[in-house]
Write a structure and sequence with these properties.
Length: about 425
């Protein structure tokens, strides 16, 4: 990095709006810091209870900026106080002050990048080691962008065309996604959760990249499918829609609370073929019950989440030394456990919301070395050349929505403009015998 980037802070609302919602935003920011960076969405839900759509949107944007740029704002203000850092955010956004010249004088390259883009030094070093020096700055910049609001139309209850018409009738700006078959990009500030379309179960919030992972599963009609790391069920519901509510779909997660949320969402979506099982995927009882029986098994493995960090900016402050090694080991164990459930000639789909090769290509190559009865099916083969161009690796082998393939010299290939989907990786592996 030569010097520091001039656009050190990007604020998706006006400085005047940030000033208007300052009491709410400062409260949420202070709580997040005091609690050592819990999930920011949980903090905001408590602070914004009863707020208008405009105040919710503006407060969320301001808090995300405060959390995202926590290190830079501390450097610029020279203070640990919430008010001082908020003043620094407004001053930089208004162009009243520019910390770039001071940042440029930081001698150590890692520290300079860490301050400029507001990441811990260890995360800068991790990203550099994974993507290379030529792409580290572009990767850090991408992780600081504002994420779009994207939803998936539930085809169990509506078509995308009908849902877009319904949303327009309620004054919600929406347009089709560029790649996902049932995705819509939402504009404006109207809360989707307060629309009649959402109440009817016709639409769910889900990023376009996440939708593409579900499409890559490509479940055969009326088949038996396992979502092996289901969580609250975003991809489970997408799979239920792809199955047209038929067949059998088992959602596995060790958290009963998450599965209860999934069941509630499934009822609203009309997904009657979903069964939730609160059990660890590695439990031997699963292998005994379902061994070799599933046509498709999806493993959306726990990961660093760096591909979705735009939505969860606090994650940069939670990651600790050794977390990647621990997660990679867990991913390998989960993929191995899930493989036991795949039927002959069935498919295992491995996915992470990460752009790190350690959580993508490297993990898949390791799995194949340990499981010779599986072979790679390319993303291009599943999605077709036209659809996979721009959202798969250059050779078409893997889904990778943030690419580092030299498509633009020294920059992150902007493969999802203008929607800028999250950074997901996915691979399809077929059981050959």
């Amino acid at each position: 990095m030569s010097g520091a980037p001039r656009a050190l802070i990007t604020l998706s609302i006006s400085p005047d709006e940030a000033a208007r919602v300052r009491p709410l935003a400062a409260r949420a920011y202070a709580e997040a810091r005091a609690r050592a960076w819990p999930f920011l969405s949980d903090v905001l839900e408590g602070v914004l209870r009863g707020a208008t759509d405009d105040d919710r949107a503006a407060t969320t944007a301001a808090v995300h900026a405060l959390v995202r740029y926590d290190r830079l704002l501390g450097f610029a203000s020279g203070s640990d106080a919430v008010d001082a850092r908020y003043d620094a955010l407004l001053a930089i956004a208004r162009g009243e002050t520019d910390p770039a010249p001071r940042v440029e004088r930081i001698a150590d390259a890692t520290e300079r990048l860490g301050v400029a883009f507001s990441f811990p030094d260890r995360l800068v070093e991790l990203v550099r080691g994974e993507v290379g020096e030529a792409y580290v700055e572009a990767a850090l910049r991408r992780m600081n962008e504002a994420a779009p609001r994207v939803a998936r139309v539930n085809t169990l209850k509506a078509t995308r065309t009908a849902c877009l018409e319904s949303l327009a009738g309620e004054g919600v700006e929406a347009r089709p996604t560029a790649h996902a078959a049932q995705g819509v990009v939402l504009g404006g500030r109207r809360s989707l959760f307060r629309t009649a379309a959402f109440a009817r179960g016709e639409i769910e919030m889900q990023d376009e990249a996440s939708q593409l992972v579900a499409e890559l599963v490509a479940p055969p009609p009326r088949s038996f499918v396992v979502d092996a790391c289901a969580g609250a069920g975003g991809k489970t519901l997408a799979l239920a829609a792809l199955l047209e509510g038929k067949g059998k779909l088992v959602a596995i997660d060790p958290s009963e609370a998450k599965l209860e949320e999934l069941r509630r969402r499934a009822r609203r979506a009309g997904a009657s073929n979903v069964q939730g099982l609160a059990v660890d995927l590695r439990d031997e009882s699963l292998a005994e019950r379902f061994r070799g029986g599933a046509s498709r098994v999806l493993v959306d493995a726990p990961c660093t989440g760096l591909g979705a960090i735009r939505r969860n900016p606090e994650a940069r402050w939670r990651l600790r030394e050794g977390d990647l090694s621990r997660l990679v080991a867990a991913q390998a164990a989960l993929a191995h456990a899930a493989a036991r459930l795949v039927a002959p000639h069935g498919r295992l789909v491995y996915a992470t919301c990460s752009f790190l090769p350690s959580e993508g290509e490297v993990a898949v190559e390791f799995f194949l070395s340990q499981n010779p009865d599986f072979a790679l099916v390319t993303a291009r083969e599943v999605l077709g050349r036209a659809r996979s161009d721009g959202i798969a690796t250059a050779d078409g082998r893997f889904l990778r929505t943030w690419r580092f393939d030299g498509a633009r010299s020294g920059e992150l290939a902007d493969v999802a403009a203008p929607d800028r989907m999250d950074g997901f990786f996915a691979a399809v592996l077929r059981r050959t015998r």
